[in-house]
Amino acid sequence: MIAAMGEDRSLGKDNDLLWHLPDDFRRFKNLTSGHKIIMGRKTFESFPKPLPNRFHIIVTRDKDYNTLHKDCTIAHSMEEAIDLVKEDKLSFIIGGGEIYKQGEEFANKLELTLIYATFPDADTFFPKIDESAWKLTAEEYHPKDAKHKFDFTYLTYVRNQ
């Protein structure tokens, strides 16, 4: 799973991010390019168009939902989405909040960006991380600067065996 979240685990409001962090966008692109990405319908619809160089798996309960984009397919459950990536060496669950909750049991790694701020207006949150199930293996701090309003840290967790 890959996500950026505030200290309060906030992800966004009204299907949009609450921050602009160009380096985090670049990291997301670098990590996910060339791979399948699993997301909920609302997350998919928040994009102006499908993200380039990635195959999108859109999870929705709506049996009539359809997309005409060639690099997209529909799954009607998280289990169905996971089945579509089972042969892949690497794939990513990219949100939103409910998809993260459903997907955590299938994940073996968390690539998180922790933003050092809280966002009281948020309406979507990342699930609480069970520290007994995950081990922090890497962290990289980035201070705020002219392009980044907030300090943030990249955190990599791997599932305990």
TrEMBL record:
Gene3D superfamilies linked: Dihydrofolate Reductase, subunit A
Keywords: NADP, One-carbon metabolism, Oxidoreductase
UniProt-listed Pfam families: DHFR_1
A GO cellular-component term linked to this record: cytosol
EC number(s) per entry: 1.5.1.3
An annotated Gene Ontology molecular function: NADP binding
Residue ranges of domain DHFR in the record: 1-159
Superkingdom classification of source: Bacteria
Chain segments annotated as transmembrane: none
Catalytic reactions on record: (6S)-5,6,7,8-tetrahydrofolate + NADP(+) = 7,8-dihydrofolate + NADPH + H(+)
Pathway: Cofactor biosynthesis; tetrahydrofolate biosynthesis; 5,6,7,8-tetrahydrofolate from 7,8-dihydrofolate: step 1/1
Listed SUPFAM superfamilies: Dihydrofolate reductase-like
A GO BP annotation: dihydrofolate metabolic process
Enzymatic class: oxidoreductase
Record function comment: Key enzyme in folate metabolism. Catalyzes an essential reaction for de novo glycine and purine synthesis, and for DNA precursor synthesis.
Protein family (similarity comment): Belongs to the dihydrofolate reductase family.
PANTHER family: DIHYDROFOLATE REDUCTASE
Protein name according to UniProt: Dihydrofolate reductase
The species this protein was found in: Ulvibacterium marinum
